Amino acid sequence: MVAGRGGLVGIRMMTSRSSRRLWLLLSAFLGVQPASADAPQAAHPVLVEMDRARIVRMPEGAKTLVIGNPMIADVTMLRSTRLMVVTGKSFGTTNLIMLDADGSHLSETLITVVESEDNLVVQRGMDRESYACNPQCMPTIALGDSKSYAPDVISAMREHDPARK
């Protein structure tokens, strides 16, 4: 905690290193192999950072993807290959079921969405602000940010959007 203009300000660096350590310990305890850095087989658990995408290889013959909770992760099948794109939307774990053309179950895997390594969260009483720090900290929007903070950041992002000019 540090003193700020509104009293005490809590600053905490949100890293996925601790989340990854916990995931690895849990995986080792349960005998589950963690996903590798390159495109993992879909049968293995998939770890993805929030607001980031990851390419994952599907089993042969997968034609239908069913995501347990689409608010946690989004999955897009790349039709011409055996690849899919997994995007982290909010923190948590959900399952992904893969079916073949006949609707038979091919595979099921867990998708866990964790925090990004470069996030900084500033807590001012009940108000929360998020910053992306890579290498300098700049305002960004994250789940749990204060309603009063978000409109200013969204407005600033729109000003710098080349598609709007």
Word description of this protein:
The structure is a single chain. The chain has 165 residues and is an alpha+beta fold. The chain is 15% helix and 43% strand. It has 2 helices and 12 strands; from the N terminus they run ββαββββββββββα. The strands form 3 sheets. It has a 5-stranded antiparallel β-sheet with strand order 1-2-10-11-12, covered by helices on one side. The longest helix is centred in the N-terminal third of the chain and has 15 residues, at 16-30. Residues 1-16 and 30-42 have low confidence and may be disordered.
Keywords summarizing the entry:
165 residues; alpha+beta; disordered N terminus; four-stranded mixed sheet; 12 strands
Task: Furnish the topology, listing elements before pairings.
Elements: E1 2-4, E2 7-14, H1 16-30, E3 46-49, E4 53-57, E5 64-67, E6 73-78, E7 83-88, E8 92-99, E9 105-114, E10 119-124, E11 127-133, E12 137-140, H2 150-159
Parallel strand pairs: 3-9
Antiparallel strand pairs: 1-2, 2-10, 4-7, 5-8, 6-7, 8-9, 10-11, 11-12
Summarize the entry for a quick read.
The protein has 165 residues and is of the alpha+beta class. 15% of the residues lie in helices and 43% in strands.
Q: How many runs of DSSP E, i.e. beta strands?
A: 12
Query: Taking Cα atoms only, what radius of gyration do you get, to the nearest Å?
Result: 19 Å
Shape: elongated
Helix coverage percent: 10-25%
**Which parts are unreliable, with pLDDT below 50 for 5 consecutive residues or more?**
1-16, 30-42
- pLDDT averaged residue by residue: 78
